[in-house]
Amino acid sequence: MVSTGLTLIAMDIALRVFSVGTPRRGTLVPKPERHPLTPWIDVFPPGYSGTLTSKDFKVGLRMNSLGLRERELDFDVLASQRPYLFLGDSYFIGWGVDLEDRLSERFAALVRQDEPPGLVVNLSFPGWGTYHYVEVWEHFVPRLRPRLVVVSCFVGNDFTDDLKQASRRKSGDAGNGRGGMFYLLGLKIREALSTSPLLGLLDHALWKFAWFRGVFNRLEIRNDRIVLYEPKSSEL
After folding, report:
1. Are 183 and 168 in contact (CB under 8 A)?
2. Measured between alpha carbons, how far is 183 from 116 in angstroms, rounded to an integer?
3. pLDDT band at 32, cuts 50/70/90?
């Protein structure tokens, strides 16, 4: 087992050095640091610009002064016009698609035909769950005064995103909101696994088989939701 583990680690390092394989979910170049949006939420640095690349897509990402994929926002002007607000995770931020192809931009094209024309604001970020939506709601909804808030909830991982955020708040340093040592260590491990070219190649190979896609989809939804219904989780 030790020999197999060391061999896999060596293969992963070699693939990283020779740049073979790209994570299916995509990788950002240059790699962005994290920047606080609220005491408990980090986003990309203000004004960040980079390229998101995977085997399936290559798109540009540009962030505004808040660190979000949206135009510059004048909250006083927007509040007077009562915009529609999109609030969600990677689905609403448009992970892997050009800006004009996002759901919010498609919706904006429709409400521009209204009288008076409607405006749309998108305050979404990948990896968010309902904890994050509430936090953004408390900070920005009173300033925007939206006529309607459209919230995206992805059953595939939003529940586990909430569990991670709850754990972070329980164990993190409330003074700076950046989380404790174990939370940061978990982030590093998760990042290493998600960017592993070895796992990426394996994922691409297995994904061609219908049985693997079926098992993956069943397990991902089960892992993220079943905890809410188990008797031992009554406190949660």
Report:
1. yes
2. 47
3. very high
Percent of the chain at pLDDT exceeding 90:
42
Backbone angles phi, psi at 151, to 5 degrees: -105, 130
Q: Say which residue the tokens 């998101």 belong to.
A: 52
Give the residue among 186, 208, 188 at the shortest CA–CA distance from 196: 188
Model confidence over 155-164: pLDDT tens digits?
767 777 777 7
Tell whether omega for the bond before 231 is within 30 degrees of 0, i.e. cis: no
CA distances from 47 to 39, 44, 59, 185, 212 (A): 20, 8, 16, 27, 40
Cα 134 to chain centroid, rounded: 15
Backbone angles phi, psi at 101, to 5 degrees: -95, 0
Higher pLDDT, 133 or 21: 133
Q: Residue 225: name the closest of 166, 165, 156, 167 by CA.
A: 156
The pLDDT of 194-217, averaged and rounded, is 79
- The secondary structure of 201-223 as a DSSP string is HHHHHHTTSHHHHHHHHHHHHHH
List C-alpha distances in Å: 56 to 53, 69, 220: 8, 21, 21
Tokens of 205: 């190979």
The reply to whether the predicted model has a pTM over 0.85 is no
